[in-house]
Amino acid sequence: MKRVAVTQRVSLVPERGERRDCLDQAWTRFLSACDLLPVLLPNVTEAALALCEPDGVSGVVLTGGNDLAALGGDSPERDTVEKALLDLAQERSLPVLGICRGMQAIQQRFAVPLRRVDGHVTPRQVIRINGGLREVNSYHRFAAFETRAPLEVWAVANDGVVEAVRHSTQPVTGIMWHPERCSPFAAEDVLLFRDSFAVK
């Protein structure tokens, strides 16, 4: 199995004075279905980068959860880690797949304006992708209605919200739905991950 770096959400536990890193177990099951092995990264930049070196991973998955700090989120350390991972991925030409917040982190990197949206927290939503229609889930409060080069729009919701982007020259992709929350896992999502990380 190829190893991929996987970011984690920050969970605040004020009664214990703790900031915990955590990840839904569904992610491990989904990545296993894609023949990928997750390397869970802490939200401590130096440690996260050390787990990726040397040649420790074949790509990066930026998962969902937590709003970006620029949008009022309370986990700035996660923003810092993910920015560093995007730098590392660019330097080493590693593929990156951003999920929900992860796609927003990619959009933020390329100065794509994000704003609050309504009607995008729902288990079913129809999007236009690859010239057809597909039903996906949706659990986000912020989104974009446009993109900027070098990102290109790949999927759009009926209200114009950009639901997926791809970099024009680098192996960077972002999607706004959560493949790990599908039951059973969607074949299209498994194929996307396998293709993105060149799983044979």
Secondary structure layout plus pairing:
Elements: E1 2-6, E2 9-13, E3 18-22, H1 25-33, E4 36-40, H2 45-51, E5 60-62, H3 76-92, E6 96-99, H4 101-109, E7 115-116, E8 121-129, E9 132-139, E10 142-143, E11 151-157, E12 162-167, E13 172-175, H5 187-196
Parallel strand pairs: 1-4, 1-5, 5-6, 6-13
Antiparallel strand pairs: 2-3, 7-10, 8-9, 8-11, 11-12, 12-13
Helix pairs in contact: 2-3, 3-4
Strand content: 25-35%
Output the helix-strand order. EEEHEHEHEHEEEEEEEH
According to CATH, the fold-level topology is Rossmann fold
Write down the overall geometry.
Answer: globular
Number of strands: 13
Low-confidence stretches: none
The averaged pLDDT comes out at: 96
In total, the number of domains comes to 1
Secondary-structure content class: alpha/beta
Query: What spatial order of strands do you see in the largest sheet?
Result: 4-1-5-6-13-12-11-8-9
Distance between the termini: 10 Å
CATH architectural arrangement: 3-Layer(aba) Sandwich
What's the number of helices? Answer: 5
Helix content bin: 25-40%
**CATH class category label:** Alpha Beta
**Annotated CATH homologous superfamily:** Class I glutamine amidotransferase (GATase) domain
Q: What value does the Rg take, in angstroms?
A: 16 Å
Largest sheet composition: 9 strands, mixed
